[in-house]
Every structure is written in structure tokens, then in C-alpha cells.
Design goal:
It contains 5 helices and 3 strands. It has helices at residues 15-24, 27-35, 43-46, 54-60, 69-77; strands at residues 11-13, 39-42, 63-65. The chain has a 3-stranded parallel beta sheet with strand order 1-2-3. The chain starts with 10 loop residues before the first strand and ends in a 9-residue tail after the last helix.
């Protein structure tokens, strides 16, 4: 039997995820970023979340990204679950 190749996962957090974790324990997202793989937050999405700001996200290890209009439009076209396993 072959060994699985280690690969790092990455996640894109939407506003609902950020709000839920901000209300309970935002440090969980930081642990995910540290032990599982990078957690990305679109700057436009973060603006919708009153419970977190850029400084807090950076402090726990989240990566804030800016998308241009073309990228955001393309990303919005994808429907359905974000996980390929769902």
C-alpha cells in the first residue's frame, strides 16, 4: 500500500463562518491556519463582519486577500458547496 502524499489544505472563510467563530472562539480559525492550512478571507467579506477587523484576523494568522472585479465575479459564478467532498 502506498503512502499518502502530505498536502496542505486551504480554506476561504465566508462572512457566516467568520461571524460564527467570532461569536464563539476566533482562535479556532487561527489553530486551523496553523495546523491544517492557510485560511483566506476576502477583504470585501471582512468588511461585512462587524465582530472582526483586519488586525484581529492577522493576529490569529488569517490571510486577508483583495480580489479584483474579474476574480470576484468569477468566484461568485461557482454555485453549490465549496467543498469538493460535499
Amino acid at each position: 500500500m502506498g503512502k499518502l502524499k502530505p498536502t496542505k489544505a486551504w480554506f476561504i472563510a465566508d462572512a457566516n463562518v467568520l461571524i460564527d467563530y467570532a461569536k464563539t472562539s476566533p482562535a479556532i480559525l487561527g489553530l486551523m491556519a496553523q495546523h491544517v492550512g492557510p485560511v483566506y478571507v476576502a477583504a470585501d467579506v471582512l468588511e461585512e463582519v462587524e465582530q472582526l477587523d483586519v488586525a484581529q484576523c492577522l493576529a490569529i494568522g488569517l490571510k486577508i486577500v483583495d480580489g479584483n472585479l474579474t476574480q470576484l465575479t468569477e468566484a461568485s459564478k461557482r454555485g453549490g458547496p465549496l467543498s469538493p467532498l460535499s
